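#struct-help
A.M.: can someone run this one for me? Single chain, 208 residues.
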Amino acid sequence: MRARKWISIVLVASLFAFIPSLVAVPITTGDFSANATILDFEELGVNDILTNQFASQGVLFNSADVTHETESIPFGFNGSASDVATSGSVFLSKGVSTFIITFTEFVDKAGIFVIDPSELSPASTMTAFFQGGGSEVITIPLSAATSDPAPFVGVSNSAGITSLQFTITAGDPVGYDDLFFESSVPEPSSLILLGLSFFGIFCYRRQN
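D.P.: on it. Structure tokens below:
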């Protein structure tokens, strides 16, 4: 009986360790590992519309304008495209509408810089949708002035993030640059817990 009790404890502890959180945790660029994928959009051409150009890397977009340093930048941005972009001289712009980033295979960390949001209302948000259902809404932080650094809006969720949806309520276009995303490899401690779980199931079946 004592052996069964300990086996039950191991089973419960192991299974609880693998129940994913359904709450998205806000993160910064420093929370990504060196293995993260970063799309800076520099390879896109003048006058391109971003849709499925990065499908081979597992990302789809519901369309956004691509702005180059050589082009006139959309109304509402100050300086040249190279001044606005968080890296290089290319960034995305989208008017007052919903901008959706979809991952063809779910990731557990994702985020992007939102450029020049000084005129956004507090209702401007990013919604992260999770594998298996559920979502989390994050308010896009406001800048005090257009010269402030672009805020990075990112989330982490072990259940898996399937898409990010940006709902913008400001009158001027909003910029986006440098999409970060990654799927983490399980840590050794997690693999040990998983092994203990299977071992406990095996022992429990042997006892019965």
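A.M.: thanks! The CA atoms of residues 116 and 171 lie 12 Å apart.
D.P.: also worth noting: Residues 15-21, 187-194 have pLDDT under 50 and may be disordered.
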